[in-house]
Amino acid sequence: MSDYILYPGCSMETGARAYYDSLKAISKPIGLNLKEIDDWNCCGATEYFGISKTPAYALIARNLALAAEQAANGTRKVVAPCSACYLNLAKADHYMREQPKLGRQVNEALAAGNLSYKPGSLDIHHLLDVIIYDIGLDVVEKNVVRPLKGVRVAPYLGCMVPRPDYDHRWSDHDLPVELDMLLKTLGADVVDYPLKTECCGGHMPQISPATAFEMLRRLISVADERDTDVMTTICPMCQLNIDGYQGEMNGFFGTNYHMPILFFTQLMGLAFGIDPKELGFGLELVSARNVLDAIGVKAPPETPPAPPRRPRKPEGLPMPTPLANPQIETLKKEVTK
Amino acid sequence: MTEALTISSTPVSDPKQIEDLTLLKEVASRTAGVSNLEMCIQCGTCGGSCPSAVEMEDTPRRLFAMLRAGMREEALKSNTPWICVSCYHCVVRCPQNIHIPDVMYTLKTMAVDAKLVQDSTAPDFSQTFVDMVEDYGRSFEIGLASRHYLKHFPLRLTNMVPMGMGMLSKKRMNLTPTRIKNMKQLKAILKRAKELEAEQ
């Protein structure tokens, strides 16, 4: 077993629950022993940097300091499954070294909470990096009992893992091959997807919807043109934008795309023969049942529909019966005359 | 004609007269890490690599030229930093290794401070997000989304219903925020960090 300190990040408990569920399911078979940072906080995503620099870095550094305390009696390797979380941790660590003044200020802020962090004392990785380069594809291959034969998967990494890549870990900034290799190991038919590291729009659906929809349209249409059955990603934000906003994007352009997107750990679990329900299948808004059908796995039942409303009593509430009105009767007779 | 002659006869021996780098230096010093902003050679690789450049009033190259020219108001009014999606395409291609998204973050902060922001949608979103993080230590999607959409996109709410209902019924959004245990510690750290930021 290899030990890692886990920084899950906020979305793993909410929007990307399928990612967390599937990560927990696959970690044992591949020998990944994850220990969560105790009382971690949000990394600030891409929002806090634009508000104020020192607080933004102090917010990230609290996690680094807590992780470093935990690392004192074990591994110093930190793994983040979320791309933004990974980049923020790596960036804070990198800039605190590159600019010692920032390092001093962040530590001065941390001191107010009785914490400190010496930059460079942790080794920060993204989950895909750990699986490819630490665990190894041979270990992954040994666990494959249900190859994803005939499933056309488009590997989609998004921006923040292969770039800026401070430690030069990835094979390429624009077209890295790591995710393709993993999918091949799972037996999938890997789509040659040229937009694999293009941006999903990030927070643009909340800021400039037209910009966001155009960015999503590019990603989805190119995957669709290449007969993709399912896209797979390594980032909660990418998954949310392509899955969650696809309906609104279709409405915006008058298109009718149906492009499911799953986390790569869900596909790993599927190939490992794990029950799709344990892997968070069915949590996606654009259904990926086609993937399960293609390899002959029974799909978990859809979210049960709301229970039908209690049928109304046919007689309804007791109402007074209208009394015979002689005046109306005479009026009716006059009208019909 | 006389005007042209006057310009051409301006002495150029004193570099201070032709270049005022105060703004450029201020932006660089407020940016995290070593920004290399003053190293820009105006090649335009950044704008050419940018997936959202079409929406920008100024490409990053032009914006950096504006900073060098000391055009404070014009640069801080530009929508460019707010359109940047932090995809880092420009960063890995920049021959001068300029930390472009980090410069954009600095310009956002400066534009808010100088009250020169033209469209409040993006800064409001960031501020709402940060407010939630400062209150709970975690992000809180449904609180953020409802506050933001009601203010900025009320007409989009009907289009959002299927997604919102889907996210809620699949329990991909929590109705109540999650709070970290040691909120007191985080608040103390952020309070001190804000003081340090203000001192600069």
What attributes characterize this protein structure?
heterodimer; A: alpha/beta; Glutathione S-transferase Yfyf (Class Pi), Chain A, domain 2; Rossmann fold; 2 domains; four-stranded parallel sheet; 43% helix; 9% strand; B: 200 residues; mainly alpha; Fumarate Reductase Iron-sulfur Protein, Chain B, domain 2; 13 helices; globular
What would you note in describing this structure?
The complex is a heterodimer of chains A (337) and B (200). Chain A has 2 domains: 126 residues, Glutathione S-transferase Yfyf (Class Pi), Chain A, domain 2 (Up-down Bundle), CATH 1.20.1050.140; 149 residues, Rossmann fold, CATH 3.40.50.11810. By secondary structure, chain A is α/β, with parallel strands linked by helices. Chain A is globular, with a radius of gyration of 27 Å. Chain A contains 14 helices and 8 strands. In chain A, 43% of the residues lie in helices and 9% in strands. In chain A, helix 2 packs across helix 3. The longest helix of chain B has 17 residues. The N terminus of chain B is likely disordered. Chain B is built from 13 helices and no strands. In chain B, 36% of the residues are buried. Chain B has 200 residues and is mainly α. Chains A and B meet through helix 2, helix 3, helix 4, helix 8 and helix 9 of A and helix 7, helix 8, helix 9, helix 10 and helix 11 of B.
